[in-house]
Write a structure and sequence with these properties.
By secondary structure, the chain is mainly beta. The chain has 3 helices and 8 strands. 9% of the residues lie in helices and 44% in strands. The strands form 2 sheets. It has a 4-stranded antiparallel β-sheet, with no helix packed on it. Strands 2-7-4-5 form a 4-stranded antiparallel β-sheet.
Length: 162
């Protein structure tokens, strides 16, 4: 059954199996000295997608002033001011302040949010990471986001089940 003209709110009520292939969009970065470093995912998000999982692996000591941020972008920013104009991956997620919000974790900690089903319009942008190193800090961040596109066709039984 063609559901391409359904509203997103109705599509998100379909069973998980209707969303098809899921894949990972990932980015990583490290900083061993003071200053900013940027990295961008090799894979772009679908223009409309569902985020199912968000995972972070962090290695490095927390030193005051060191942080990292995530956003959506078409190209790697040249500086922090340019990064600050980008849209956050998950609005409002991170330490209090302006978006994209700053984040930090302690050495060797992992963080994961699973079972999200979070709809995002990304316009085919990529995941952009900013690492800000502080004096005496070594930081490594790896972020993986599991996504799928929105289905356009589903079997009849999936519609009757709802």
């Amino acid at each position: 059954m063609n559901i391409s003209n359904w509203p997103v709110s109705r599509i998100l009520q379909l069973p998980d199996c209707c969303f098809g292939q899921r894949y990972v969009v990932s980015v990583s970065g490290d900083r061993k000295a003071f200053g900013d470093w940027f990295s961008m995912s090799e894979i772009a998000f679908p223009s409309q997608c569902v985020i199912w999982e968000y995972s972070v692996y962090f290695a490095g000591q927390h030193v005051d002033g060191a942080y990292w941020r995530l956003a959506l972008g078409l190209e790697e920013p040249a500086d922090t001011a340019e990064f600050s104009l980008l849209e956050p991956l998950i609005p409002g997620f991170g330490l209090p302040g302006v978006d994209p919000k700053q984040m930090w974790q302690g050495y060797g900690q992992n963080f994961a949010m699973r079972g999200l089903r979070l709809y995002r319009e990304t316009q085919g942008r990529r995941l952009v990471l900013q690492c800000h190193g502080a004096a005496g800090a070594t930081t490594y961040v790896f972020v993986a986001v599991v996504v799928s596109s929105l289905p356009k066709e589903v079997p009849e039984w999936a519609v009757r089940a709802r």
